[in-house]
Specification:
The protein is 17% helix and 20% strand. By secondary structure, the protein is of the alpha+beta class.
């Protein structure tokens, strides 16, 4: 339960990040954020622990009682709007390639895909937008540490650096009903860690 996601909003109720429940509780205790309930009321840590945990809600145990898991946090002082630049992350690569293997052309679910370096790192290939593609496990194993032409494979399309974040596809990643009102407000920087180049 402590590793499940919590949506973080800036002071203007715009999504800026997604953190774990463990991190969310740290933020609440430190006073840098307040929990937001379904009626958009905000609570500090002590007032949040005083709320009764309903049967159909996610909870965690603390000494002597159960406490609700907050699904939305509101930052106390952060009011910036997230960057519009597309972060170089695994999720954004999958979104750019539409969950489609760029060698065989088949669509897959996220666990069945990985990121392939068109020019393998062993041959000097860099981890950059124009050298990575979404690949199914079978095609990735077949290609191995070779160039696509050496493996008798062809790319569906050359990888490019996207100029806008593919946020329209993110609506299907809304994991909790409490998140839905905030996903329709603005495009926001995605929560995945930025990949090192």
């Amino acid at each position: 339960m402590l590793s499940t996601p919590v949506l973080v909003l800036n002071r203007h109720y715009m999504p800026v990040n997604i953190v774990t429940v463990k991190r969310a509780f740290c933020m609440l205790v430190a006073g840098v954020a307040r929990a937001v309930d379904r009626e958009y009321r905000t609570f500090d840590f002590m007032s949040w622990t005083d709320l009764s945990a309903e049967v159909n809600q996610d909870t965690v145990g603390i000494v002597g009682k159960m406490i609700r898991v907050p699904r939305v946090l509101l930052l106390a002082t952060y009011d910036r709007v997230p960057k519009r630049a597309v972060r170089f992350s695994r999720m954004n690569i999958l979104l750019r390639d539409r969950y489609t293997c760029q060698y065989c052309g088949n669509k897959f679910k996220r666990p069945q895909l990985n990121i392939d370096h068109v020019v393998p790192r062993s041959l000097g290939g860099k981890s950059m937008w124009d050298n990575v593609v979404t690949s199914c496990l079978k095609c990735n194993l077949h290609k191995g540490g070779r160039l696509p032409r050496e493996a008798g494979m062809k790319l569906l399309r050359q990888p490019v650096h996207p100029h806008i974040t593919p946020f329209a596809s993110l609506r299907r990643f809304v994991e909790y009903d409490e998140w839905k009102p905030f996903f329709n407000m603005v495009d926001f920087s995605y929560w995945n860690v930025e990949l090192e180049s």
